[in-house]
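Researcher: Let's try something more involved. This one mixes different molecule types, so please make sure each is placed in the same coordinate frame as the others.
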Amino acid sequence: MKVAVASGKGGTGKTTVAVNMALALSGRGEPVQLIDCDVEEPNAHLFVKPSWKTKRNAFVPVPRVDESKCTHCGACAEVCQYHAILISPQKVFFLEELCHSCGACIELCPENALKESYRKIGEIEEGTKSGLWFAHGKLTPGEPMSPPLIRQVKQLAWGEGAVILDCPPGASCPVVESVKGSDFCVLVTEPTPFGLNDLMIALDMLSQLRIPGGVVVNRDGLGTSEVSDYCRKMGIPILMYIPYEERLARLYARGIPVSTVSYEWSQRFGMLWDRIIKATAGSVDHFSAVSCGVGKD
Ligand code: SF4
Ligand code: SF4
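Model: All components are placed in one shared frame. Result:
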């Protein structure tokens, strides 16, 4: 069961939900993987504090030219949809950051002058914390494309058991790449008009990806009821309300997941996972979320 945790924008509490849910499951003795897909700004490790086991470089394939064979015919530049190749009468120039590793230029070179080479785009680290398996990617600063690294980090997901993906914020390519292939997506939002606006964009993305989703309302009690009203009207399950509490904010600021210091909160995040399982079976609606008291008491 692969569950993505996303949000329309940063700072909504997405990582809090992903980390606490993963720790709650490992606390119950269940096998669980937490993968931080926010490779541009990974931060889940600051809360998990894993013991690192492995660290390796991540690469993408790129073409390299053998100038002794090249006739500068221009066929490779012509086939490259991403304008990553420039040809001069004397030299072939590769703009590697634009290369999408499609391999078309290598296939089509009539002189067999292009070969596959590798370019480092970042690092992947794996670790554990009391039964929880953790991984994240770190994109090299200045690297323009994060999806290739996100794909490589996601490949570490087990085929079975619980896999939780902490996604980047927003609804652009890196988020789509992170959420793609999940069985369910939890959207974390705040009860404000801005929160509702971002939630609607994220829901649209899920609908295009045909991935079922549910909502976690964070900092409940601070804003309005617009998000709840919208979800009720649209039949979108609200899986959990996390009330605004100064204690939670303080723990977050100190990098302490609340589920590690509160049995009650660990239970709540465990219940959130259970509700996701039910939601994938289509047996959860907004009203049962409130009545079961997950985060709303
Ligand atoms: S297609 Fe091959 S031979 Fe032609 S310019 Fe490109 S590398 Fe050189
Ligand atoms: S591998 Fe594809 S994207 Fe990269 S330079 Fe060749 S044609 Fe362009």
